[in-house]
Amino acid sequence: MTSKRRRRARRRAGRPASTTSPEAEAAPPSRAASRPGAKALSPFPPFRTSLARGLWSVAAAPPTLAWTFVSLLVTWAVFVSLGEAPTPSLLAVLLSVSPAHLLADLPVAFGAGGGVAILVALAVLGLVRAVTFGLLILLIQGWLENGRAELRLALRRLPAALSGLFTVLLVEAAAMYALLSVAGGFLGPLAPLTVVAALYFLAFVPVVAAVDGGSLQQSFRRGFRAARLPGTSHLTLVMAYFLLFFYAASVSPFGIVTSATPGPLEWAFALVVTLVHAGVLGSLVFRWLAVRDQVSGDLAPRRGSS
Amino acid sequence: MSPRPSSSRAPARLRGWPAAAAVTVVALGGGPASAQEADPWPMAGRDAAHSGTAEGPAPPYREAWTEAVALGGPVTGPAVARSALVVVAARGVMALDPATGEPLWEMDRTEGPAGPPAIAGDLLVHASGSGSSTAVVARGLEDGNEAWRAFVDADVPGGLVVADGLVYAATTAGEVVALEADTGEERWRSEVEGRLEATPAVVEDLVLVAGEVRQTGVVTVFALDAATGGRPQWRFSTPGPALPASAPASDGERAFVATSEGVLRALDLDGGGQVWIAEIRAAVSSRQVPAASSPLVVADRLHLYGLGPGDGEERWTFLLADLRALPGGRQNTLSPSSPAVLGGAAVIGDTSGVLSAIDLDTGRLVWRSDLSPGPLGAVAVGDDLVFATTLGQGGSVIGLEHDPDGVLLDEPSPTTVFPLRAILNFVVAATVVGAVALGLSRLAIRGTAASAGERGS
User: A81 CB near a chain B CB, below 8 Å?
Assistant: First the structure.
């Protein structure tokens, strides 16, 4: 397939169609891609389609939209109770996609005291994140698969997803802490760049844990596997999101030092940025649903052969 | 509403005999004058140990007088004697009548870095010049005539301190120079590691300085024995980069120093061991002098803190500066200012020209006034007046008196969270953003459906 044809094929695959299932949006396995030396075609839906569907899955469904907002308020309240009143910049990245959210969580947990206090803070934050992310992912999944975000259905499925998601988030917290500690030693102020690597490899893991359940090992294996599918589509999404994350974290129209009680404008700014975070999470859910069978199918024979 | 502070409460706030005794001792040791004749604010931090505490009028205040300072404008806060208030300007020194603000005299000074001057009996001492030609100059308090001049060979950016008949100057070459207050004769000179940017503190024959090593960023607090020619008694180094550091201060038992890695430390005066450590939320400036009162009042670039001197427990914090951009490329901070504790309140100015008073008991703002568009230096206290200094060209000294008709405020720090207010604000914002998001997504769905219909037909 020539590059022109490939681009045309991608455009066809990228056409927004609300009625199309995520699996249908995924690029079909290409014969050319399987040829030795050929440039692999990404199985993910295109960047713009993913982002549009992700944003749509949040903004067009009132229950999802409401839960996104409530999640921000709940997370803010937990931060305040742990002694950290978020600034507008922190507020804007409070609901960032896992594991970028750990850049907000880890300093708060480690500022809570020492030893047991840190562990308790991490556990509290992990639980809150598991509930907020879990329900959000399930609502998004419902909308993407059935065209409806049903709160009751999502709530029924949440307990099953909760323990897996909680464990995943705790493991991610430990991994991020280790990564940032090691990277901080030789990358210095560039250490946050490791977030790109963490996002690249781990972004799918909580989605897999919430949508499919399964063991911790399975969630990580499938998440890694999805991230490492051919093409640069996932990397593009991660890089674009990373830039947004740091823009939101560093640019605040409200000055550097503000009141600890957020005003309506500060909340509005944070809610708009949070919508984008949730939209990116929606994109990841959309992409996971598109490649789930392929990833699970790839894994099955491996398990059988070992 | 917090209880209205009264001027008579100020000395009573020094709870516990060690702090009260220390303040009394340093006040007496600050010069040859007796306790009755002690000058109200003879040097940076009020006395050699930097108690920062004086009897003075309680808030609210009103302007009693304002006197413009020529000679390039003030570079630092004033020193106050009974007979004169002295302020160091960029190119001179000016004395004012503390009661009326009337100029008494003004003298030229060679330009160069300088901290607050100090008063030693009937002499005033200040830094003059820069680099190797830097000198400590003594002038008659009455007429401004030069009494003596001693060269110290390097910049003296901090204030001068007078204790037990000696004038102490700390230089950027890392030297502490002790001069006879009467003659200017050099008694001893001691070299330590690092630059000395801040005002030294003197307590019980120990001279406390904070050396800053630019290459490593490490701050080392040195305690030099004044009785043995400045021999180091102990030293304490920060574990990592921490500069700049505030001036040291002492309550007679501990030395306090704030450093810019966000830490305030109390060090044992006997051996330099760390007694306690408290977190501060922003960097500090070497021009800032903590007030070793009770509570211990410390400023960083943005906040004013009240802490227990014995355990470092934070009693209150007030966010006073917001880093907003000011004319001339400046930011609003507390960097050039140091607090004064009087009348049951801690008073401090910011670089936007706002002077604020925080109640020592409640940590709430009880008074605030926008005095000028220029930055305010360290606050000083007279018998019945509080003195604020506007720094820089066009600066002035402002005398403030208690305003019996004024109204006290009762404002919490902006760092206080009001959950109900926050939730109400959230509901308003979420309603608007939610409606817009839903509306836009519905429009998008309609648009997509229409285009799909067109394609189908």
Answer: no
What is the ipTM for the molecules in this complex? 0.84
The burial class, CB within 10 Å (0-12 / 13-18 / 19+), for B143 is: exposed
A99: amino acid identity, one letter: P
Residues B335 and B430 in one domain: no
pTM for the complete prediction?
Answer: 0.75
What is residue A215's DSSP assignment? -
Report how far residue B194's alpha carbon sits from residue A28's, in angstroms, rounded to the nearest whole number.
68
Q: Where are the domains of chain A?
A: 55-290
Instruction: Please report residues of B whose CB lies closer than 8 A to that of A16.
Output: 448
End-to-end CA distance of chain B: 73
Q: Is residue B413 part of a domain?
A: no
- The CATH number that applies at residue B256 is 2.130.10.10
Task: Let me know whether B324 and B443 are in one domain.
Answer: no
Interchain CB distance below 8 Å, A85 and B415:
yes
Could you tell me the residue range of the domain that residue B430 belongs to?
419-457
pLDDT in tens, A79-117: 999 988 898 888 988 999 989 999 899 999 988 877 889
Residue A136 host element (H or E):
helix A116-146
Closest CA of chain A from B143, distance in Å: 47
Q: Are residues B284 and B208 in the same domain?
A: yes
Domain count along chain B: 2
Q: Are residues B238 and B267 in contact, defined by beta-carbon separation less than 8 angstroms? A: no
The CA distance from B409 to A275, in Å, is: 40
Q: Distance, in angstroms, between B427 CA and closest chain A CA?
A: 8
